[in-house]
Amino acid sequence: MKKVDIFFTINGVKKTVSAHPMKRLLDLLREELELTGTKEGCGEGECGACSVFVEGKLVNSCLIPSLQVQGCEVKTIEGVADGEQLHRVQESFLKEGGAQCGICTPGMIMAAIALLEENSEPSYEEIQEGLAGNLCRCTGYTKIFTSVVKACQK
Amino acid sequence: MRWIGKDVPRKEGKDKVTGASRYIDDITFPDMLYGVTVRSETSRGILQRTVFEEGIPWEEFTQVTCKDIPGNNYVALIETDQPYLADGKINHPLEAVLLLAHPDKYLLQEARRKVSLEVDPLPPVYDIEESLNQKEIVWGKDNVFKEYLLEKGDIDQVWEKADHIIEGEYKTGAQEQLYIETNGIVAVANPEEGVTVWGSLQCPYYVHKALMALFDLPADKIRVIQTTTGGGFGGKEEYPSMIAGHAALLAWKSGKPVKLIYDRLEDLAATTKRHPSLTRHKMALSSEGKILGMEIDFVLDGGAYATLSSVVLSRGTIHAAGPYLCENVRVRARVVATNTPPHGAFRGFGAPQSIFALERHLDKAALQLNLSKEELRRRNFIQEGQLTATGQVINEKVSLADLMTKAMEKSDFQKKKEQFHSENKKNKYIKRGIGLSSFFHGAGFTGSGEAYLESMLGMEATKEGKIRILSASTEIGQGTNTIFSQIAAEALGIEYDLIEISVPDTALVPNSGPTVASRTCMIVGKLVESAAIQVKEILRQSGFLASTYSSSEFSKACQSYLDKFSQLRVFSKYKQPTNIKWDDQTYRGDAYGAYAWAVYVAEIKIDLRTYETTVEDFVALQEVGKVIHPTLAAGQIEGGVAQGIGYGLYEKVVWDKGQMINNQMTNYIMPTSADIGKIRVFFEEAPYAHGPAGAKGIGELPLDGVAPAISSAIENAIGLDIPEIPVTPETLHEYWVSRKVNS
């Protein structure tokens, strides 16, 4: 199949990229746009390391063909902070030890933001459930839960 | 103290939360090729022919076989038995045979599928029993990579004096490290400049040594640079030497940069895992519950090549008798060959296996002697001045009895036990239980290891008036950069922000040893402290630094010194404390400079409709010397407990003909946030004289005690003593049904 023009908004900026329509959104972001903050952990939608927002919804970018974001608004970890001003969830992860090796962190932060947008004061169990699509091997999740709880208080 | 014991911001934290950190797959070079590895499907045999199917423009591909290796075709580590690329003989599934590189990574994947290997099969050996029975000889003369015999007292005269003799057999499965960033390397290599690799790795100098042998090049022609590393847990200790070699061989032949990144399927199937184990215990006890003797037969499955197995076995052997006083001990330990991909380093390094067996066996003994699990342990805890199984005199205050008391309180053990007992009677399907483990973990290399390594660390002043630490110890998430900066800032009496950490690059930093064995804080951290003291002394003697000073005065002093002398750089080399003595021949002496001590309590729930076990509450209480950074330290323990929960309950590697067949995150189940109950971490601090500010090692400790505490709780809940892990629903069901049949 030939390459096609895919036009979409990425982190607030309109872009047109020529790509194979079935290229994974993950690869489009990383290879064509050099947005390497979005990570590949498993390539099958299991680990959540590649989580981004498409039209405000949290998705695994390894499962989305590029053509599917035609005309959509996409947001990645690079679009989360406001310039030098970190998002409250980023600040909280930084302060509370929510990031260790950091490879799951971009996806985990996207998932935490999605969770808080839906539910501004989640219970402990709701946080556990809300982040269950994002795997972390370092933290045992405990400091991530604390990070989310503290972010709610900001 | 101003910095030690404080929750300072993680050094590289901001880059991690913004996605700015550059991991290996985030790095590209112009004109770069991608590499892949063609692997055998057969587990053992003789390679006859490599067939390249039609439909692929093969002439466009760089191809590397063992014939292209400029130096030695072995991965230099301990033995020289493991080839980089199979030379006729196949010894395990997924053994690397051929390397391919091409600019188009999609075409490359297709090409890999179009290569087939014709192999004349030989009879394989797949498990410990088959290997011990010498069903086939697949390695050396007898399939045994290494054997240790650890003896204390006279075990043979103990049995007739014993009131109780208790025997048991325990099994642990393989476990995948499952760092979320898969293994990967980028290489640039040519005869003029030598070989440079960037990669996700724990031990730059292991890779350095391996590449020197592979290319037959001198040290200064090999350069290894660690990139931000997305978790290691031992899985990036020795294996990166293999990938680095493969990427570098492709780069060498093609003359272009080559990136070789494993996808998850390949990483799970082809790289190392925790060694499966089989342990037999025979224990003699008095009627008062004193352990009179322990005879332990400890066997690990090493896979097809020796790799680090002898060292893993060593740690497992030394920890096999646990933190208990026993005058008569014999541990016979062996690691044997099978035709599976080699097993390797994983956090805990042999100790989780032997400690699981011992702790389960103590529970069995307690039940038989009609003592509580707590009481049996209390009657046998080793005390200051007593001798361990290797004859090491414990010369620190042992806090296990106190830890036991506190862990009982924090977990409300007795009350919960009674409560669960009465609730379980009423509830047909939901059964709760509470269980414990007590254990120790030695920090640093075993025995003479640290003296042999002679680790070296550098420190220098920068023209900005900062201090830079030069170390090969890698940040892999555990917080090396942060704690080193705290230790240096504390010793220098300056701001934390004035400390920088050099990238671990073998061209820039000395060999501070591998990032393994819970040694980074205690051993290398101590070198940071002593280097800082040297820097301060030099600045003082030069007259640029007064006896009291502010951080800005310190910076000015550094700059003035550099203006005058152009360089301020010191090196600090590890010196074995004089009281540590070890005999490699008799395998006796001071096995470790210091031990961390711990008591863990697990509270679990079993649903007898689904046979699922869930951890509801976990108390992890440990004495680890001075805690350098409370949040990072707790994070280490919490992460270790979660891995331990996976080890005990979920993480089952399914083998078929020596190959992992559930090599997907969908099928190999690690704990998610919904699977982890409350993990409550508590530290006791007894400063260790030879650690920085009194710190000991903590990284591996938590892996040792979680699975046995969970199994102990399962026994408490349903009265089933399951002697193997993981206790998946299928395993629990099997034992539950067979018990019903038997009774």
Q: What does this 3D model show about the protein?
A:
The complex is a heterodimer of chains A (154) and B (743). Chain A has 154 residues and is an alpha+beta fold. In chain A, 32% of the residues lie in helices and 16% in strands. Chain A contains 5 helices and 5 strands; from the N terminus they run ββαβββαααα. Chain A has helices spanning 25-32, 88-96, 105-118, 124-130, 142-152; strands at 4-10, 13-19, 51-54, 57-60, 73-75. Chain A has a 5-stranded mixed sheet with strand order 2-1-5-3-4, sandwiched between helices. With 743 residues, chain B is an alpha+beta fold. Chain B has 3 domains: 24-122 and 183-261, Alpha-Beta Complex (Aldehyde Oxidoreductase, domain 3); 277-446 and 587-742, Aldehyde Oxidoreductase, domain 4 (2-Layer Sandwich); 455-573, Aldehyde oxidase/xanthine dehydrogenase, molybdopterin binding domain (Aldehyde Oxidoreductase, domain 4, 2-Layer Sandwich), CATH 3.30.365. Chain B is built from 18 helices and 28 strands. In chain B, strand 9 (184-190) and strand 10 form a beta hairpin. Chains A and B meet through helix 2, helix 3, helix 4 and helix 5 of A and helix 1 and helix 16 of B.
Question: Can you summarize this structure?
Answer:
Chain A is an alpha+beta fold. In chain A, 32% of the residues lie in helices and 16% in strands.
How do the helices and strands line up, and which of them pair or pack?
The complex is a heterodimer of chains A (154) and B (743).
Chain A: E1 4-10, E2 13-19, H1 25-32, E3 51-54, E4 57-60, E5 73-75, H2 88-96, H3 105-118, H4 124-130, H5 142-152
Parallel strand pairs in A: 1-5
Antiparallel strand pairs in A: 1-2, 3-4, 3-5
Helix pairs in contact in A: 2-5
Chain B: H1 13-18, E1 33-39, E2 45-52, E3 62-64, E4 89-90, E5 96-102, H2 105-113, E6 115-121, H3 128-132, E7 144-152, E8 164-172, E9 184-190, E10 194-199, H4 204-215, E11 222-226, H5 239-254, E12 258-261, H6 264-270, E13 277-285, E14 291-303, H7 309-319, E15 328-337, H8 351-369, H9 373-378, H10 400-411, H11 413-426, E16 430-443, H12 449-453, E17 456-461, E18 467-470, H13 480-492, E19 499-501, H14 520-541, H15 551-565, E20 569-573, E21 582-583, E22 588-589, E23 594-607, E24 612-623, H16 630-650, E25 655-656, E26 659-660, E27 678-684, H17 701-718, E28 724-725, H18 729-742
Parallel strand pairs in B: 1-12, 8-28, 10-11, 14-15, 18-19, 24-27
Antiparallel strand pairs in B: 1-5, 2-4, 2-6, 3-5, 7-15, 8-13, 9-10, 9-12, 13-14, 16-23, 17-18, 17-20, 21-22, 23-24, 25-26
